[in-house]
Design goal:
Radius of gyration of chain B: 17 Å
Oligomer: heterodimer
Strand content of chain A: 5-15%
Largest interface: A-B, 29 and 29 residues
Shape of chain B: globular
Strand content of chain B: 15-25%
Number of strands of chain B: 10
Structural class of chain A: alpha+beta
Radius of gyration of chain A: 33 Å
Helix content of chain A: over 70%
Largest sheet of chain B: 6 strands, mixed
Order of helices and strands of chain A: HHEHEHHEHEHHHH
Helix content of chain B: 25-40%
């Protein structure tokens, strides 16, 4: 039902497209002006959004660091194979090398019975007492650094190793990795739930701000409706507003995370080194920041869209 | 052009603003709508712009049945109608130019076109040169004229005026009326609601009279005055 205006065809089309762009540009300016006109209210909204987005951002950061940590702790996993007493030394060394080749372990160290005893005597200070009393009770062993971080994989390998004829028993020191994996899973789950909840919070926050904005501009909206403004024309400045608020909130959240990083980073590094890890706190990358800003913008836009739809559809056209 | 077919409008609370009104306004006609305050004049105009829907009956504008108009089509319907109010409904935080340009901006017209037509409209109402003023810097009469410029800037087929001279002195009122007649002369259908009988009496155009929501006079365009 749109009556086309006069004007030569091509120039007319060009004019319309640039008018469309100009409309959007004007809308954006209008929207920024509106936000700046109520600086306190806008700042508060941005800050609240920042806090809402801070937690998911933080959790994702921590989860990322735990990944690195996990790989750092990889080194501390070790498998100890205890060999049958009948296995001769030569065979034991051979086996150690074979396993190293076969599984691609980081290291495999054979310790003969005699060497184990000597080590024990030296460390325990019992001297030759043990030998004189009971002979050598200690078995030969192969200590393996598997260089694998995933618990399930290690356990599978251990199962395979246990099946070797020379091996009497296999011992796995896995506790740290299991703990770490459990923590990671917990964090992952918590992070997902919190992200959804806080995402909704952002929707509500922006929605409320937009609702108030619509109230404040009621007169103007009525006039626009009167002269034949479409829904999208009226909604546009609010949608832009939501987008900007969301992005600004996310940017502030990134800033807060960086501050957190700077203040806490040193202490975390110390803690990590105490646990024998060479890892260092990984901060937020530029991509992470971009993603957060994108998320904030999307949530802001969505919150605005929902609020505008609710408000404009409930009143007469 | 505009046709009311047995239209009644009842508001919640039992107030019947219009009762069984049937009338027809031809294309290019200029008619006055009179009646005392509360007779239903404003309601009738609001039905034409689809601000309201009738409780009974149908309203046709340019052959379109407004009852059948979808929500999305209403803006396009309104673009064909220019409305002037007694309280002019200008936006105070925008310049005269921006106020008058609004109907064109809403349509997505090019800056070139907007510029041309806005200046033409302002020239027509005698306010060329005041584009950068804010409405608050203008007198009541001038504000009313800005409202008229906004109503005609998009060259609508229909012009509605709800008490356009309500706040103005007789001389100004006459000037405003002359403007409406000028627009009518170029083919715009004009309907002016006014209870200012002194203004209307001197005119020879059709007069439609409402009394307590009922059509009392002037139902047919080719009827007696």
């Amino acid at each position: 039902m749109h009556r086309s205006r006069s004007g030569s065809g091509h120039q007319h089309q060009q004019g319309r497209f640039s008018a469309y762009l100009r409309n959007h540009w004007l809308t954006l300016q209008d929207c920024i002006k509106g936000l700046v006109a109520t600086p306190l209210s806008s700042a508060m909204t941005v800050f609240v959004i920042a806090i809402a987005l801070l937690l998911p951002g933080l959790l994702s950061l921590v989860a990322g660091n735990l990944e690195t940590l996990g790989s750092g702790f990889r080194d501390s996993a070790s498998i100890t194979l205890f060999l049958h007493d009948e296995v001769p030394e030569e065979r034991g060394r051979e086996l150690s090398n074979d396993l190293l080749q076969e599984f691609g372990f980081e290291a495999a160290q054979y310790l003969s019975r005699a060497a184990a005893l000597a080590e024990f005597e030296a460390e325990s200070g019992f001297g030759q007492l043990l030998t004189e009393l009971a002979g050598n009770p200690l078995p030969a062993s192969i200590t393996i650094s598997p260089g694998i971080a995933e618990p399930t994989r290690i356990q599978r390998v251990v199962g395979q190793l246990q099946d070797r004829p020379e091996v009497e028993s296999a011992q796995l020191d896995l506790l740290w990795i299991q703990r770490l994996t459990a923590i990671q899973e917990l964090l992952g789950r918590a992070s997902r739930v919190l992200t959804v909840v806080l995402g909704m919070a952002v929707l509500f926050i922006v929605g409320n701000t937009v609702r108030m904005g619509i109230e404040n501009r009621r007169r103007e909206i009525d006039v626009v409706k009167l002269v034949g403004g479409t829904y999208s024309y009226i909604a546009r400045p609010f949608l832009y507003g939501g987008l900007l608020l969301g992005m600004a909130g996310a940017a502030v959240a990134c800033g807060l995370l960086m501050i957190l990083q700077l203040s806490v980073g040193g202490a975390v590094d110390r803690l990590l080194s105490l646990y024998g890890s060479a890892a260092v706190l990984q901060g937020m990358s530029f991509n992470d920041a971009l993603r957060l800003v994108g998320l904030g913008g999307a949530l802001g836009w969505l919150g605005a869209a929902l609020s505008v739809a609710a408000r404009l559809y409930s009143s007469p056209p | 052009m505009i046709k009311f077919d047995c239209v009644s409008k009842r508001y919640e609370g039992g107030n019947e603003a219009l009762s069984q009104v049937s009338l027809e306004i031809e294309k290019g006609e200029l008619a006055f709508l009179t009646g005392r305050s509360g007779a239903g004049k404003s309601t009738l105009l609001r039905l034409i712009t689809r601000m309201e829907q009738p409780s009974q009956g149908q309203v046709f504008v340019e052959g379109r049945n407004l009852n059948r108009l979808g929500r999305r089509q209403i803006p396009y319907h309104r673009r064909r109608i220019g409305v002037v109010f007694q309280d002019h409904q200008l936006l105070y935080d925008r310049t005269v130019y921006d106020n008058v340009a609004l109907p064109m901006r809403v349509c997505g017209q090019s800056t070139y076109q907007i510029d041309r037509r806005v200046r033409a409209a302002l020239d027509k109402v005698g306010l060329l040169g005041r584009e950068k003023f804010l409405p608050t810097a203008l007198s009541g009469g001038e504000q009313q004229r800005v409202g008229i410029a906004r109503a005609v800037v998009n060259r609508p087929a229909i012009l509605l005026a709800d008490e356009p001279t309500g706040n103005l002195d007789p001389l100004l009122s006459r000037e405003i009326l002359t403007l409406f007649e000028d627009f009518n002369r170029v083919g715009v259908s004009v309907l002016i609601a006014s209870h200012d009988l002194s203004l209307i009496a001197s005119r020879r155009q059709r007069i439609i009279t409402l009394q307590e929501g009922r059509l009392v006079n002037g139902g047919d365009s080719v009827g007696e005055h």
